[in-house]
Write a structure and sequence with these properties.
This protein is mainly alpha-helical. It has twelve helices and two strands; from the N terminus they run H-H-H-H-H-H-H-H-H-E-E-H-H-H. A hairpin with a 2-residue loop joins strand 1 and strand 2.
C-alpha cells in the first residue's frame, strides 16, 4: 500500500508541474510569472521527495524527513515572491528575501540532522514551527478574499508536508501522504480561476468592464495587499486631477452610483496603467484597456 501512495504522489507531482508550466506561460506579461518559476522548482522538490519515499528504495528516514521539510520550505517561495513582485525591486527580492528565507528555515533542520548524525527524522521545535507559521500566514493570508480557496488548500498542503517530515514513512497515515494531492488541487484551482478571469477580460466590451476585469485578475494574481496599494496609489491623483470617479474593489465608480462615461475614465485609466506598469507589460495593458480608443 505505501508504494501505491508513492506512485500516486509521483504522478500527482508530475501533473502539478505540467499545470504550473501552463500557468507560467499564461503570465508572461506579469511579474507574477517569477513566482511560478519558483513554483516549478518547488514542485520538482516535491517530486524528489515522492521518489525518495518509495519503499523499494529503502531510503534513510532522516533523508525522507529532510526532503519533506525541504519541499515544505520551497513551497513557501512562490507566495513570498508575490510579496515583492513589483519592478524594479523584484530582482533584489529573490536574493535578499527569498533565498535567505530558504537558508534560515533549512539551517535549523540541517543542524538537527547533523546533530543526530542523520539517524532520526526532524523534530518540529517551537521556533521552527513559529518561523514557518509567520511566513505562511503573511504570504498566503494576502490571497484571502481574492483567491481564498487556492490559498487555503495550498497552505494545508504545506502544513501536511511539514508534519510528514517528522513522522517515519513506515507509520504515516494516508492523510500525511496527501500533501502532493492538496498542492495539485490548489494549483488546479488557480489555473481554473486564471482561465475564467482571462476569458472575462477578453470578452469585456466597455471600459468600465475592462477595468473591473483587469482589477479582478490583478487581485487574483497578487492578493489583497497589492490590490489595496494600487487602489490607494491611483486614488491619490483624484483630488488633484478633480476626477469624478474613485478606484474601488469593484472598479472605477462615481460617488452618486451612476456609471462613469469613457471621457470621465480617460485620465483615471491612464493613472491605473501607470501604476500597473510596475507589475505588467505596459503595451499589453494599453491594448487591454483600449487606451487608443479613449484618446
Amino acid at each position: 500500500m505505501p508504494d501505491i501512495f508513492g506512485l500516486i504522489s509521483i504522478a500527482t507531482a508530475l501533473v502539478a508541474v505540467w499545470f504550473a508550466v501552463q500557468i507560467r506561460s499564461m503570465l508572461m506579461m506579469w511579474t507574477a510569472r517569477q513566482a511560478w518559476t519558483w513554483m516549478i522548482v518547488s514542485l520538482l522538490a516535491v517530486l524528489l521527495h515522492s521518489v525518495f519515499s518509495l519503499r523499494i528504495l529503502q531510503m534513510n528516514e532522516a533523508v525522507n524527513s529532510a526532503t519533506a521539510y525541504f519541499s515544505a520550505t520551497m513551497l513557501l517561495t512562490p507566495l513570498v515572491t508575490i510579496l515583492g513582485a513589483r519592478r524594479p525591486g523584484i530582482f533584489a527580492w529573490h536574493w535578499f528575501v527569498v533565498l535567505p528565507m530558504i537558508v534560515v528555515l533549512q539551517w535549523a533542520a540541517f543542524s538537527q540532522l547533523q546533530g543526530n548524525h542523520w539517524r532520526t527524522p526532524i523534530e518540529l521545535s517551537a521556533p521552527l514551527v513559529m518561523g514557518f507559521a509567520v511566513v505562511l500566514v503573511m504570504s498566503a493570508g494576502t490571497f484571502l478574499g481574492m483567491n481564498s480557496l487556492f490559498a487555503l488548500v495550498y497552505a494545508l498542503g504545506i502544513a501536511i508536508f511539514l508534519t510528514s517530515g517528522t513522522t517515519p514513512a513506515s507509520v504515516q497515515s494516508p492523510v500525511l501522504r496527501s500533501g502532493p494531492l492538496l498542492i495539485l488541487a490548489a494549483i488546479w484551482i488557480f489555473h481554473r480561476n486564471l482561465r475564467l478571469q482571462t476569458a472575462q477580460l477578453q470578452t469585456a466590451s466597455t471600459t468600465i468592464q475592462q477595468t473591473k476585469a483587469l482589477q479582478n485578475l490583478f487581485g487574483s494574481l497578487y492578493g489583497f495587499a497589492w490590490s489595496r496599494r494600487v487602489q490607494d496609489r491611483v486614488n491619490q491623483f483624484a483630488p488633484r486631477e478633480q476626477w469624478s470617479v474613485r478606484l474601488t474593489s469593484a472598479g472605477f465608480e462615481r460617488p452618486d452610483g451612476n456609471l462613469p462615461t469613457d471621457e470621465e475614465l480617460r485620465k483615471p485609466c491612464e493613472a491605473l496603467l501607470w501604476v500597473l506598469a510596475r507589475f505588467g507589460d505596459e503595451t499589453w495593458l494599453q491594448h487591454i484597456l483600449n487606451q487608443s480608443n479613449l484618446r
